[in-house]
Amino acid sequence: MNITEAFQENVIIVSLDGRFDANTSDAVEQFLRVRISESKFQFVLDMANVPYISSAGLRVILAVVKELRRDNKGDLRIANLQKTVAKVFEISGLNNVLGIFKNPDSAIQSFTD
User: Residue 47: exposed, middle, or buried by beta-carbon count in 10 A (0-12, 13-18, 19+)?
Assistant: First the structure.
């Protein structure tokens, strides 16, 4: 899993490249938690290059969202889901709980709407 970041309008865009599963979920979680410890609270996960997500990946997303939403500190949005990954979010019902957007720009815009 390759993890890169960019900043736009006080939002960190975290681009993931690779499978988001038990082998990579710890690295993603650690990356996000370090940014949270640096008082960064608005994230967009760009998952355009994530062909697969397991329950371990979903757990990381939910744990980070829960921490960010606690005391209204911030939130995490998801963008660019591939069809197979979008189906996992739909089947799990997480598409009703998380902000899922077609692209990072619309996800970033949602923070100011």
Answer: buried
Q: What is the mean pLDDT of each run of 10 residues along the chain (113 residues)?
A: 94 98 97 95 98 97 95 94 96 93 96 85
- Sheet containing 2-8, strands listed edge to edge, beginning at the edge strand earlier in sequence: 2-8, 11-17, 42-49, 75-79, 99-101
Is residue 86 within 8 A of residue 77, CB to CB? The reply is no
Instruction: Please report the domains of the chain, with CATH numbers, ordered by start residue.
Output: 2-110 (3.30.750.24)
H/E stretch holding 108 reads helix 104-110
As a whole number of angstroms, the distance between CA 27 and CA 20 comes to 10
